[in-house]
């Protein structure tokens, strides 16, 4: 193949490849176009631990001074006429002193918006008792709260407001059934006002992207937005550990309790006839020596026993104090008394005993000899 022919073939291949690439590009651009796509990103760490974070930032953007706390505190309760409190926690968790401080703050002109407890189980708590409210059973079904136009907010699981609320509260809002209880109530409390709601889920981070939840939340917060200082108390998003353990951990707790009872039963003392005491280990050699000594004493051989012990003491005296061993009589007794600190008379009785037939004399003599042997 000539050089000109090869160049012509390469040029034709390039033209075909360019035409094919142009055709593919035209087809792609004709059938595909860019479309914006939105997806929900997972909440950050702060938003996961603070369900009122979005509400706090919204209120700050509107110029309010916001205090957002997990636990109830009266640290910043000043200027009640310019303050509002949102209590998004179980009101039964407040102590008596905290309830008194909160209601005293409301009496001086503050506004209070609080929700009912998550369930009607247990006590009502001092705060609800002071407000004359009794929590009824939680609503098992959802009902739609009609808003302006065709919009509606779906409220689910709120605890009904019960008690003698008709005589103390105004602007009552009932559920869409015939059961007793309300989902909203409002009343004056001295110079302040109290707003009760079955739930405040419409104020949480997860609900503020729904227009109907924003509309209900705005309506609930409308009186509070007139105040400059707003206190948010969000409580805990989860139940206490011991409640979760009993409610969800019983499949593991029950076998563990049975195993513990079985172990206690196996390890406990059994009932039955009294068993004889366990025999204690004995030193048979010492018993034989003691028995031999008692036998010789009863047979009148106390002198033989004394002679054996005296010979051992004299050998020790000869090896340790040869100068003292060379002495005799009272001189030796006095020297041994000065050396060992024992009584000279007792030493003389031990070296030259009299009356070994008596048990007490024998015991005193042997005791003196043994002390003399130890002190040499």
Task: Write up what this structure looks like.
The protein is an alpha/beta fold. The chain has helices at 3-31, 45-49, 53-61, 96-107, 126-130, 211-221, 241-248, 250-267, 284-298, 302-320, 322-325, 329-340, 344-351, 359-375, and strands spanning 65-69, 83-87, 111-115, 134-138, 142-146, 152-156, 159-162, 170-174, 182-189, 192-197, 229-233. It has a seven-stranded mixed beta sheet. It has a two-stranded antiparallel sheet with strand order 4-7. Helix 4 (96-107) links the parallel strand 2 and strand 3 (111-115). Helix 10 packs parallel to helix 14 (359-375), helix 12 packs across helix 13 (344-351) and helix 13 (344-351) crosses helix 14 (359-375). It is elongated.
In brief:
46% of the residues lie in helices and 15% in strands. It is α/β, with parallel strands linked by helices and 376 residues long.
